[in-house]
Amino acid sequence: MNKYLVIFEEIEQAIRNGKYAPNSILPSENELAERYDTSRETIRKALNILAQKGYIQKLRGKGSLVLDMQKLQFPISGLVSFKELAEKMGSSSVTHIESFAKKVPTAVLQKEMNLKKDEPIWEVSRIREINKEKIILDKDYIVERFVPGLTKEICSHSIFDYIEKDLKLKIGFARKEFTVEIPTEEDYRLLDLEGFQAIVVVKNYIYFENAILFQYTESRHRPDKFRFVDFARRNE
C-alpha cells in the first residue's frame, strides 16, 4: 500500500477513536512529515483524502480542522455511496428495498435525464436505516442500456460497486442540487420523521467519465442526522 494511504488510515482511525477531538487542529504538515518520516507531499495527499471523505476541513493559514463525526458527513463536492458512508462511520446500517422495477420514464424524468419516452429505466426506491433509524429515502432512476442486469439483490448492497466492479465502467462526476422541503406523505410513511417538519433533498445527476448522464437520484434526508461539508476558497 502507498505510504500516503497508510498515513490516511492511521489518522482516520485516530479521529474516529477520539485522539483528535472535534474542532481541534491536526499537527502541521511539517510535524506530520517528521512523525511519519516522509515528505510534505505525501502528507498532503493523505490530508486531501481525509478532506474529501469529510474528516477534516483544510483552513488556509491555520491547518486542518477536525470535523464533528457525530453526524453523518457528506462531502458536497465528493461522490460517496451510502455503503462507503456507512463503512466510514462504522455505523450499523441496513438498506430496505421499497420498490424495484424496469419502466419507461415519466414526462418529468424524460426532461430531467434527456431521454426518449420509450427509453427503459430502472426505478429503485431504497430506505436507508442507520443505527435502527430510517433516515434516508433514495429514489434512483438509472438508464437500463447503460447499466444492464441490475437486480434487487444488487440494489440492496451497492449499485456503484456493481457499475465499477462488475460492469467495469468509470463513474466520473455528479451535479448536485440541495433544497429543504416539507416532508411528503410518503416521507412520513417510510422514514422515522415524527416531530420533523422539514427534510433535506439532494438531487444527484450522475455521469460516467465520458460525460454521459446515466443516473438521476433524489435522496431525502432527515435533517438532524447529517452535515454536508465542503471546503471553498475565495479567488484572489
Automatic annotation (TrEMBL):
It comes from the Bacteria. The lineage of its organism: Bacteria, Bacillati, Bacillota, Bacilli, Bacillales. One of its GO terms (molecular function) is DNA binding. One of its GO terms (biological process) is negative regulation of DNA-templated transcription. Keywords: DNA-binding, Repressor, Transcription, Transcription regulation. Residues 1-69 form the HTH gntR-type domain. CDD domains: WHTH_GntR. Pfam families: GntR, UTRA. This is Trehalose operon repressor. Gene3D superfamilies: Chorismate lyase-like (3.40.1410.10), Winged helix-like DNA-binding domain superfamily/Winged helix DNA-binding domain (1.10.10.10). Coiled coil: none annotated.
